[in-house]
Amino acid sequence: MNDKDLELLKFYRDSGIDYVLEDKKQVQEEEKVVEQKYMLPSDWVVEAKKIADRCTSVEELKKAIESFNGCEVKAMATNTVFADGNSQAKIMLIGEAPGMNEDLRGIPFCGASGDLLDKMLAAIELDRTKVYISNTMFWRPPGNRRPTDLELEMCRPFVEKHIALVLPKILVLVGGTATYSLLDQTKSISRLRGQFHIYTNQYLDMEITTAVIFHPAYLLRQPMQKRLAWQDLKQIKEYINNNIAP
């Protein structure tokens, strides 16, 4: 007990106060922390959906994700990586999980991958003021490993609500993890790219046209695939020009 606590107790004694009612909100928060400590991973999946259900705005969802403690990797991450770009845009990109640069800066697609993504967007006359970018998972897995199925399942309600709140005209899934999680597809990007897919989820009352593209990190490792990536970008640009008002 420090000096301030002792002074406060002395004040209570001198004032004839025998006991102090604890702050109700503080007690509730402490009880919640204790309860969460003993929750199973499956309980956290249910809890994530309950939290996502209650969110009515992008900002509210962001705060909910930042305070969510179900994913153990959050404890090892530097930042929660939520989104970047224009949340009013009609073009939404969903990436995989944060890497080292994203974790340090708290922004999706930084570093070499981010630079290449920016160049890819510029090639079809887009930039981060005209698109909205988020991830399938919001914290960096140790060693940049692929997120586990449980981690993806835990984050999925947040991702689904995020898409529903933004309500883009076209969704672009960047990389295999995003495609696997949101389209429930185990096929490779090579087999899924070059065509449009239909996406919907529990929070949507409409279907969203969805494109699948190679992740920039993959293109940096396999530059010969940039030719196919350019074809995909041209297809996306054509859809935007024909379906989305400037």
From TrEMBL:
GO terms for molecular function: 4 iron, 4 sulfur cluster binding; metal ion binding; uracil DNA N-glycosylase activity. Keywords: 4Fe-4S, DNA damage, DNA repair, Hydrolase, Iron, Iron-sulfur, Metal-binding. It is an enzyme of class 3 (hydrolase). Signal peptide: none annotated. GO terms for biological process: DNA repair. Its EC number is 3.2.2.27. InterPro entries: UDG_Type-4/5, Ura-DNA_glyco_family4, Uracil-DNA_glycosylase-like, Uracil-DNA_glycosylase-like_sf. Gene3D superfamilies: Uracil-DNA glycosylase-like domain. It catalyses: Hydrolyzes single-stranded DNA or mismatched double-stranded DNA and polynucleotides, releasing free uracil. Residues 82-234 form the Uracil-DNA glycosylase-like domain. Belongs to the uracil-DNA glycosylase (UDG) superfamily. Type 4 (UDGa) family. This is Type-4 uracil-DNA glycosylase.
